Amino acid sequence: MALMDKTLLNIVFDGADEVYARAEAGINEAIAKYGEEKAVAFPGTAYSIPIYYGFTGTKVSTLGELKEALAVAKTHMTRDKRLHNGFHAGIASAMCAEFCELLKYLDGGAPYGAEVEGSDDICYGFLDDAKIRELGVPLVTQDIPGVAVIIGKAPTVQAACDLVKSYQSQGILVTLTGDICDQLKEGGYKTSFATRVIPLGKEMQTVAHVVSVAVRTALIFGNISAGDWDGMCAYNMARLFAFVNAYTPLTEEIVSYGAGAIAMGFPVITNEEGFYRVPKSLIVQPDIEKWNATSLDARNIKIKITNIDIPVAFASAFEGEIIRKGDMQVEFDGSRVDCCELVQMKEPSEVEDHNIEVIGQDLDDWAPGEKHQIVYVVEVAGKNMQADFEPVFERKFHSYVNCIEGIMHTGQRDMIRVRISKDAYAAGFRLKHIGEVLYAQIKNEFEAVVDKCAVKIYTDPETCTKMRHEVAIPTFDKRDERLASMTDEAVDVYYSCIMCQAFSPSHVCVVTPERLGLCGAVSWFDAKATNELDPAGPCQKITKERVIDERIGEYEDVNEAVRQFSQGALEDVSLYSIMEKPMTSCGCFECICGIEPFSNGVCIANREYTGGTPLGMTFSELASMTGGGVQTPGFMGHGKHFISSKKFMKAEGGVGRIVWLPKDLKEQVRENLNKTAKDLYDIDNFCDMIGDETITTDPEELVAFLTEKGHPALTMDPMM
Question: Which of 160, 280, 547, 602, by CA, is between 20 and 30 Å from 79?
Fold first, then answer.
């Protein structure tokens, strides 16, 4: 029977039945081979089988339980011809697709090769919790204004590449399912999680992996309870701006997934002429060149246009682009030669607005693959400009330069590395265009304090050396001396930060000089600058005049602000305790800290670490116990820099409570953490007393190691 010979609901029901039958056959085959007790799990998640868990509240850990879950999914496929039942059947079909995908991971299977070195496969399949948390900040800040779910096969390879490029250039996160994955590969289009163009898989059922992302976004950031079916759909409709683009020909299976998408608030746009139409939800647009505009309009996504006079694209989607050595036209590496980036506040009379100078040689003067020196200085002037804003601007350079298509930037200050690709050079990109980007972004983002801006780019080796050692480094040293003297006691106000409320409605960060925002991206100076630039924005001043308990860092002023900014969801909060009224977490945190009762201390895991901990949980499992804007005594999300702060767990004794860190994280914080421990406890080389995964992840073995080292946590007062 032809598709249009059926009612829309019957198409949905038939598609759901098809996916159900496939899942049933796969599960029965797996049970026959492995038995019902065989463990099942997706890698790197604390949310079991996420779609099923998110909508039912039930975790699945064995093939036998998976069979029971399939029976539950079947109860939502009633074929009762009401819209509500069509939506339920659509979501149930996504559950069944997820079950089919889960079976690929049995026995530690690695069915997709995008992250396997040497693999020719560009597909990712399941995206772990760490990746979703990594997307948290750009989703919150609208650097990712929406999510495109593209399904099927475009009319041509070029059409496929053009559609994806149109979204990527707007910062839209793009996921791909079906033949379009091969089309992009054939067209030489660069895909990766880092550049936010993510091929999920070539089978239609792999669309379940993006539904899984949507479900976990609600669980991680929104504090939606697992099993809250209506809450799950409402959250995604209101806060995750996703949409589906489905190429003709549609099938019953695709339409069933589309019903699930619409139930979650994600409109479906297709070029299947003559197909059913539902206003704002199921849209037929035969001209795929209009899909971008149609999709954004249907989801009410507003793209902020930044007009910059450069010959390549500029968008946040390019921020994670990697330029390999063989693909680079030139490299500037501050670890090998003299390079730096600097902002200098000037008097208005000293700055000629939009004056961009390249002083020295340009890209045309060098052979491909060479390494050279570079210094770029941004001069700013404005009646509201303050010297304290200089480092705030500089920290933005990493993002600004990385957003240029074909340019890679790492580091900051005088330890930068910049690579310009051969493709960008061939497109006409030259050094002046770095200046154009810096000028446009500074004027755009900081217009409230910057009236004039000019950029000087030096490549002459002698001048670069002089600028780095005689101008930049003394400036950095002077700032660092000031920052070192900045304590919570030295300021009259703290700042709120509620940027994450776009996804975590009740979360409020309180940012102090010694406690950055838990995402690690917002310092006290950043919050101060944000407040100056946008007095009614996400960062508001909080006085600290009425102390309730200095030991745990509780103030009546802070409590009043938290109550106001959380819309009453939070009553009170402490700044320095993990046990008493701890600060909430949104889900974007870089690290999570949890009590380790055997050693009377705490273990910390960072988002990049995927292994086990002495707490018996991975980062993802630990992180699932907090987040969503709720207080969880004994667990705390935080930034990496906070680990070495003298205010870290001050109420419980400070950094001396840290008994375990992943080795890579330990090395990152070693210098500052050792200094803090020396100042607080007169202990030398404190990090050598801290366990890591190369020493043990067993709590009893950890205690033995700590005892041997004489770790201070063992003699501190009990935490519980």
Answer: 280
Tokens found for residue 526 = 């950043």
In contact, 209 and 101? CB cutoff 8 Å: yes
Residue 257 and residue 330 share a domain:
no
Burial tier of 47 (Cβ tally within 10 Å: 0-12, 13-18, 19+): buried
* Torsions phi, psi for 83 (to 5 deg): -55, -45
Confidence of residue 123 (pLDDT cuts 50, 70, 90): very high
Tell whether 309 is covered by a domain: no
Please tell me the distance from the alpha carbon of residue 236 to that of residue 254, in angstroms, as a whole number. 20
What pTM value is reported for the model? Answer: 0.79
d(CA 534, CA 529): 8
587 and 704 co-located in one domain: yes
pLDDT at 136 over 80: no
CA-wise closest residue to 378 among 299, 487, 284, 456:
456
Nearest CA to 404 out of 385, 383, 386, 425 is that of: 425
Quick check: is 303 in a domain? no
Owning domain of residue 667: 489-715
Q: Is residue 117 part of a domain?
A: no
Does one domain contain both 133 and 280?
yes
Contacts of residue 715, defined as CB under 8 A and 6 or more positions apart, other chains included, come to none
CATH code (residue 368): 3.30.1650.10
In a domain, 56, yes or no: yes
Helix (H, G, I), strand (E, B) or coil at 179: coil
Residues 348 and 431 placed together within one structural domain of the fold? yes
The helix (H) or strand (E) run that includes residue 315 is none
Please give the residue that has the higher pLDDT: either 133 or 295. Answer: 295
Q: Considering the chain, what is the average pLDDT of its residues?
A: 92
The domain total for the chain is 4
User: In the predicted model, is pLDDT for residue 235 greater than 70?
Assistant: yes
State mean pLDDT over 223-247.
93
Residues 246 and 265: their CA atoms lie apart, in Å, by 16
Residue partners of 349: CB distance under 8 A and separation at least 6? none
Question: Strand 242-246 vs strand 268-270: parallel, antiparallel, or unpaired?
Answer: parallel
Look at 153-157, 478-482, 507-511, 679-683 and tell me which has the smallest mean pLDDT: 478-482
Element (H, E) at 414: none
Can you read off the two tokens belonging to residue 507? 């979360």
420 with 348, same domain?
Answer: yes
Dist. CA 214–CA 238, nearest whole Å: 12
Task: With cut-offs at 50, 70 and 90, classify the pLDDT of residue 115.
Answer: confident
Phi and psi at 434, nearest 5°, equal: -60, -45
pLDDT in tens, 502-551: 667 788 889 999 988 877 778 888 888 888 878 888 899 999 999 999 99
Across 568-584, b (16+ Cβ under 10 Å) vs e yields: ebbebbbbbbbbbbbbb
Q: Are residues 581 and 710 in the same domain?
A: yes
How sure is the predictor about 455, in pLDDT bands with cuts at 50, 70 and 90? Answer: very high
Tell me, what's the pLDDT at 342? Answer: 95
